[in-house]
Amino acid sequence: MNKEKKPMFKKLDSEAKFSLLRMAVAIAIGLTLAVILIVLSAENPAESLKYFFLGPLQILNPNVAKGLAFNYFDFWIQSMIPLLFTGSAVCIMFSANKFNLGLEGAIMCGGLACGWVCCLLDGDIKAANANPVLCAILGLLVGAIAGGLITSIPALLEKKWGASVMVSSLMLNYISLYISRFCLFSTEFRDLKTSKYSNQWTEEVVLTFKKFLGTKLTLRLGLFIGIAVVIFAWAFLFKTKWGFKIRELGHNPNFAKYVGVGVISMGVLVQIIGGLIGGLCGATVILGNNNFYYGVELTGYGWDGVTMAIFSGNNPKKLFLATAFIAYIRAGALIMSTAPGGPINELTKIVEGVIILFLLAEKFLAKTHRKMIVKEAKEKQALKLANEAKEAE
Length: 393
Description:
The chain is an all-alpha fold. It has a domain at 81-329: ABC transporter involved in vitamin B12 uptake, BtuC (Orthogonal Bundle). 70% of the residues lie in helices and 1% in strands. The chain is built from 15 helices and two strands. The chain has a two-stranded antiparallel sheet. α4 (72-95) crosses α13. It is globular, with a radius of gyration of 24 Å.
């Protein structure tokens, strides 16, 4: 007897349906607020709304003729790349309840280490004594290692002396920033022609292909590396024994310790893995955007990772949609702000903040949640009685 196929949504349990409902309602509220603010502040609300909602889909920038050679669609894709990395890193660390906020420092030191390697090998590449592809791979590896070292410091301080991971990792971000500035301002790494950039290396190392498929699109290899990192994070957390131990550690540390999980060592491990991904993010961003290092300010990507983890519920499987959505509204807000009389670019921060506020509110739609649970229980009970009646016949 063939079973009737149910729609995908109906196969979900009440918790999954409620999670999707909360997300949809929170996004709707955030976007509604954005529309209201645009209408109240823009000189031409209709044009501003068009830029905000449809701007990132434009392949060719209509302002290229005016000297603004900026690709809207490419900016959307470019904005997604660091979010994929940092979201994956924070999902892994937060799954174990390790609130290491040193991802900013890991990203900065990862980019710094990668840039230093590229500068050192630049002469060999130009002399054809080194392969630029191998140089890029080496830069990515060194950047990842540097990031892992940064986040391992708060983890080891907690293990050895019980220091607060949150406090020590926050302070380490500024230490990383000033190390970066010292290298740019006071060493041979800096470019003497500028005040905030490093020496340049050959563009053959950059992780992009210009004019892809005969268009003005740019194929960014960092996007594929980011997707691979997300897949790794999901497989690591949900398809391995280590991932199961990490999730148990986050749900109930006492139970995890009782069943033999090395609580301290596992906590250190997740923070190192998060740092490795963060360092890889810094190296990828540097190699994917320019052929020089420019770390004189904190990037903010680390905090973006926290936002992505909240949106995805610490599940890397949901990161693709979360990063695409956040990057899209950021691109739309930037495009809108460049239009004459357009609102300020900070509009996207308001939207993100409102959405996160509702997602973190435990009692948001609580009555609806209870109704969904009761409805599901009644449906299961009715199905059970119907099956028992069939068996009795």
